[in-house]
Amino acid sequence: MYQAEHKQKEINMQKTLLILVASLGLTLAGCSSSPDKEIDELNEVETLTAQELFDQAKGSLKGGNYARAIELLEEIDTRYPFGRISEQAKLDLIYAYFKKGDYESGQALADRFVRQHPQHNNLDYVYYMKGVMHYEQEVGFFKELFNADIHTRDTTNLKASFENFKALVQVYPESKYAPDSRQRMIQIRNILADYELHVAKFYMERDSYIGAANRAKYVVENYPKTPAVPKALDILISAYKVLELPELAEQYRKVLLLNYPNYELADY
User: Hey, is 164 helix, strand or coil?
Assistant: First the structure.
């Protein structure tokens, strides 16, 4: 009885060992085939025509595989730099970079496209995408707008975004991208005005009244009709009172009451 049980255990152990060896062999085979697979894919890409590359890239874009789409579209851009397919591939590549979050590459390609095709029919789209990419790069700016270190923020991307949307609506007022561009311009102006206003408040809280007045005046002069204007006028009035410039304070008080009669002055 004991010998039978012992023999059965040995058989089970041998079976287990065989399974482990087989599994290890499959794993090693899989690992060894990966480089071959990558080489095959690379060779396949190198043999495809411009149209075949473009068709595959379109499929990858539709499927949300932006990394693969970028690889294929970059291959077209490198091997087939001229022609109708090449131009459309560049436009799609700008979009793919945008979706992948590679805004720097997207903006660089957009700039190159404008230089190479200054009369292209889809140039409005390129300006629009440039504006959107600059806009998206400032997502963190919106989140940090009310931080204590607001005065150190860099608004370069927001201003660049505004200028691209402005160029679009000026040159292509009937473009299908113009309505959204106009809305984004309004939003950007409001954000930039709020930024300047917060800097002015920052200076007021630290008794830097000249700095506060300068930033508040910048809002009034450069961002009229934004919600920040009445608050900026309020800061101007308060700052000039402290600086013992009553005539200027009274001047801005009249402007404030004339344009915003129901506004209640703050107590700084």
Answer: helix
Tokens 């508040």 belong to 216
- What the chain holds in terms of domains, given with CATH numbers, is 47-117 (1.25.40)
Sign, CA torsion 133/108/55/175: positive
pLDDT in tens, 147-195: 545 445 678 899 999 999 999 999 999 999 999 999 999 999 999 999 9
Are the CB atoms for 150 and 195 separated by under 8 Å?
yes
φ, ψ of residue 225 to 5 degrees: the values are 70, 10
Helix axes 103-116, 123-137, angle to 10 degrees: 150
Helices (H) and strands (E) in the chain, counts: 12, 0
The answer to whether the CB of 254 falls within 8 A of the CB of 225 is no
Residue type (1 letter), 190: N
In whole angstroms, give the CA distance from residue 190 to residue 101.
Answer: 25
Instruction: Tell me how many degrees the CA angle 207-211-212 measures, rounded to the nearest 5.
Output: 70
What is the value of pTM for the model shown? 0.73
* pLDDT, tens digit (0-9, with 9 covering 90-100), for 200-258: 999 999 999 999 999 999 999 999 999 999 999 999 999 999 999 999 999 999 999 99
Q: What is the DSSP string of 35-94?
A: HHHHHHHHHHHHH--HHHHHHHHHHHHHTT-HHHHHHHHHHHHHH--SSHHHHHHHHHHH
User: Which two tokens mark 87?
Assistant: 């131009």
